[in-house]
Amino acid sequence: MTDETINVEGAVCAPSLPHTEQIVMGHGAGGRMSHQLIQKMFMPAFQNSALQAGDDAALVLPEHGRLSISTDAHVVFPLFFPGGDIGRLAICGTVNDVAMLGAQPLYITAGFILEEGLPMDTLKRVIESMRAAAEEAGVQIVAGDTKVVQRGKADGLYVTTAGVGVVREGVNISGANAKVGDAVILSGSIGDHGIAVLGARGELGFESAIQSDVAPLNHLIDAMLEVSNNIHVLRDPTRGGLATTLNEIAAQSKIGIMLNEQAISVHPEVNAACEMLGFDPLYVANEGKLIAIVAKEDAEKVLAVMKRTHYGEDAVIIGEVQGSLKGRVLLKTAYGTTRVIDMLAGEMLPRIC
Amino acid sequence: MKYVTEYRDAALVKNVIEEIHRTVTRPWTLMEICGGQTHAIVRHGIDQLLPHQIELVHGPGCPVCVTPLELIDKALEIASRPDVIFCSYGDMLRVPGSKRDLFSIKAQGGDVRVVYSPLDAVTLAQQNPAKQIVFFAIGFETTAPPNVMSVLQAQRLGLKNFSILVSHVRVPPAISAILGSPHNRVQGFLLAGHVCSIMGYWEYPPLVEKYKIPMAVTGFEPLDVAQGILTTVQLLEAGKVEVANAYQRAVTLEGLKPAQDAINKVFMECDRKWRGIGEIPMSGWGLRPEFDQFNAEKRFDVDAIRAEESPLCIAGQILQGLKKPHDCSAFGKQCTPDNPLGATMVSSEGACAAYYRYRE
Q1: Residue A39: inside a domain, yes or no?
Q2: What value of ipTM does the predicted structure carry?
Q3: Cβ atoms B224, B248 nearer than 8 A
Q4: A120, part of any domain
Q5: Last residue of a domain, which of A114, A133, A167?
């Protein structure tokens, strides 16, 4: 800038920098910068009338029937990993939780905690990913909030989401509804998400091609509910893995579950990573799988329709609900022996050797 | 997975199990020394397939379980220092010391990190010259080569901020202690295949000779474990007292000479306390005096730390094969994986944790 270009009319402060490259504290102060961030970054991606009204809350038409409501906080590190990112995870996680009651998810809200210095481009990629996931799931992001915290007080960005859906007429799905004789169906292979994230953190010590399975499962659930009124339990085995989720169901329904180890599918790469690190795939997180506990007479019908969908093509019956051993999950091994499958105790820890 | 799936083949395992049934004529008590084998046996339910005459008792071969309380307290003290990055194998984080564990140190601001290899800790030392990097070097002969390599690598790089807290233990003295006990009831041993892949099995014929008990080098997959049991039972039934190798694809008599040389260069034999058992003479490895600068116990003033075990816990008797987890009044009650009283409940290789996790 040369002297000629400076036009001083009295004493004025220098205009503030636009800060379009990275997040600064001002983006969270609630003033013009916050406003611009919302207008430029969030509105174009998530456009819908409820959000664009710009009020303090989203106005939506009341729906008949029962609502399914869920909320979730997402703090995954790194923000981007093979097969997904924090944005897709945030949308899919809440869509899936809402849908697991047999509801059609409709609206999502999102709260962002951004760390000072976060590259604007990173935020943009996350927002775009949320938009794409919301579109795939058929939900609208109708309200949101943005806060900025000082550098070092967050890991780039955190997202909390809440979701609302409408439960279909006549559907009554709950973790407490498993009945003796029901079939336990799993929608695909386990452990992909957990191992993909570990790989992205560089904690595997080797290159891996494992992709996270993060996906919205509501359309899969739609297809299942089309063919059966006898789906008793739906649940997605996220943190704590298949083992922990089945234990929760066994406790809620006061029944026992007997699994067939050979029916549970694990990708060879995931299995290899688990072998090397001393993890058990039964305890590794999934973000695009569901467990369905279905009346025996409907099991094959539900399985067939699942297999025709993209996210359920590898679905398989992995076990059955039993009246004995209430509250416990057992597994029949390839050798005909049985063992108890317990919940994950605390953090999943690699074994020494 | 190549070389894993084949050894989990149900039909092959069934063949070996049937052979065990055909071979056995009398009751026999066998001990698998290694925690990894305990884990495999209970996970796959191999003991459920055996003839009723064969009893498996679980030995003291879980390195996490036998690390003495005192040393864990020393680790906690060092890890809580602001100038330290404390690196450990993952299993050790949950092991309770007298009052706290590494998780609580971490939550209070200590820099505690899980590493998969001690060489990762050496890299951390290079990257953080202003910090002291301490690696918790625990384990049997299996983890000794990487642990001594970290010291040799730190020496080669001239690092002044790297040290290891050593709690190394060795299998042969533990077997001697068990067989020499007046309460011993073990009649045959499954030797730890991974330990023998490093050390060979030349150390065991003198023990076999002295105690007149057969032993079989045994691997970790279901077929390996079944084969190890069959081999030991065949020796027992034939009245043969010798060491057999039932894990030939990984183990030779001599073992890995370069690994043994590296261990001997950095470590020397020393007395070692085993959690729950007590001191076993010359049962451990410690750093040679010429590597004092890499010795965390010397670098940090933790010599005065002393500790006592929970009086309820019978881990010591379990580790010696004298009792089973179900014999403990605290098992599954006061003592669970969420709230372990003793180390056998902490590690996934520990007998109590394996029983809690896999048994009705």
Answers
A1: yes
A2: 0.82
A3: no
A4: yes
A5: A167
| Whole-number Å distance between alpha carbons of B288 and A139 | 66
Interface contact flag, B42 A333, Cβ < 8 Å: no
Q: Which residues pair with B244 in a beta bridge?
A: B216
- Of A167, A202, A233, the last residue of a domain is A167
For residue A207, what are its two tokens? 């290159």
Describe the crossing of helices A218-227 and A86-99 by its angle, rounded to 10 degrees. 20
Q: In a 3-state reduction of DSSP, which class is residue A183? A: strand
Q: Do A153 and A266 belong together in one domain?
A: no
Instruction: Say how far apart CA B199 and CA B196 lie, in whole Å.
Output: 5
Q: Is residue A3 part of a domain?
A: no
Class of domain B65-169+255-299: alpha beta
Per residue in B228-269, pLDDT tens? 999 999 999 999 999 999 999 999 999 999 999 999 999 999
Residues of B in contact with A346 (CB under 8 A): 94, 103, 337-338
Beta carbons within 10 angstroms of residue A171's beta carbon:
16
- Same structural domain for residues A136 and A239? no
Range of the domain at A106: 25-167
Residues in contact with A43: Cβ distance below 8 Å, sequence separation at least 6, in sequence order? A51, A52
The enclosing domain of A132 has a CATH number of 3.30.1330.10
Is the Cβ of B4 closer than 8 Å to some Cβ of chain A?
A: yes
A253: Cβ–Cβ under 8 A, 6 or more apart, which residues?
A175, A176, A177, A178, A179, A233, A321
d(CA B8, CA B314): 33
- Going by C-alpha positions, the residue among A104, A135, A272 that lies closest to residue B5 is A272
What six digits make up the tokens of B271?
């007395």
Q: Inspect the interface and report whether the beta carbons of A335 and B349 lie closer than 8 Å.
A: no
Q: What is the pLDDT of residues A107-150, one digit of tens each?
A: 999 999 999 999 999 999 999 999 999 999 999 999 999 999 99
**Do A81 and A153 lie in a common domain?**
yes
Distant-in-sequence, close-in-space partners of A11: CB < 8 Å, separation ≥ 6: none
Q: Which CATH number covers residue A301?
A: 3.90.650.10
User: With contacts defined as CB-CB under 8 Å, which chain A residues touch B222?
Assistant: 335
pLDDT of residue B227 exceeding 60, the answer is yes
DSSP class of A284: S
